[in-house]
Amino acid sequence: MKKTILMALSAALVLSMSACADKSQESSAQSTKSATSNTIVTEEELGLRKENLYTEKGVAPVKKVDVTAAPGTAKRFERSYENAPPLIPHSVDGLLPITRNNNACLGCHMPEVASSVGATPIPPTHFMDFRTQKKLDHLAQQRFNCSQCHVPQANVKPLVKNTFQPDYRNPNEKKRSNLIDTLNEGVK
C-alpha cells in the first residue's frame, strides 16, 4: 500500500512539473511572439546600405573623394594598425589591372629604386616564400597582385562608428613594416 501511494505521488509530481513546464513554454512563446510582432525588421534594414537586397537599381555607389594626385605628391594616411598594408596615396589610373606580366607598381616600389623616387619600398616579406621559409632574389609569385591588399586611400565617412586606436610598439611602424622581424613572434 505504501508503495502504491508513493508511486501515485511520484506520478502526480511528474505530471504537475510537466504542466508547469508547458505553461512556462507557452508563456515564453507568447512573450516572444508579442516582442517580435512589434519589432519587424525589413530586408532593407538588414545591411549597412539600407537598400533592397534583391536589386541594385537606383543604388548610388559610396561617395568618396578619389586620390587624383600624381605619385609622390599626396599626403599619405598612416597605417591602420601595426604592419597593416599601406594605402595607395596616388591615382591608379592606367596602372590596373595588375597581371604577372604587367605590374607598373614595380617600376617605383622595388627596393633598389624606391628611395631614389620617394616611394615606399616593397618589404622583405614580399621576397620570401612562406611555404619553404626561404628568402628569394625576386618578388614571390604569390605577391604580384598589389591591389589584392593595397587599395587607394580615399576620404569616406565610415558606415559604422569606429573607435579602434592602433597601438604601435615603435612609432616608425606607422610608416614602415617590420613584419619580417615579427612574423614568427609567439611561435615556438
Automatic annotation (TrEMBL):
Residues 1-21 form the signal peptide. InterPro entries: Multihaem_cyt_sf (IPR036280), NapB (IPR005591). SUPFAM superfamilies: Multiheme cytochromes. It is found in: Periplasm. Residues 166-188 are annotated as: Disordered. Its main location: periplasm. PROSITE patterns: PROKAR_LIPOPROTEIN. It holds the Pfam family NapB. Keywords: Electron transport, Heme, Iron, Metal-binding, Periplasm, Signal, Transport. Belongs to the NapB family. This is Periplasmic nitrate reductase, electron transfer subunit. The lineage of its organism: Bacteria, Pseudomonadati, Campylobacterota, Epsilonproteobacteria, Campylobacterales.
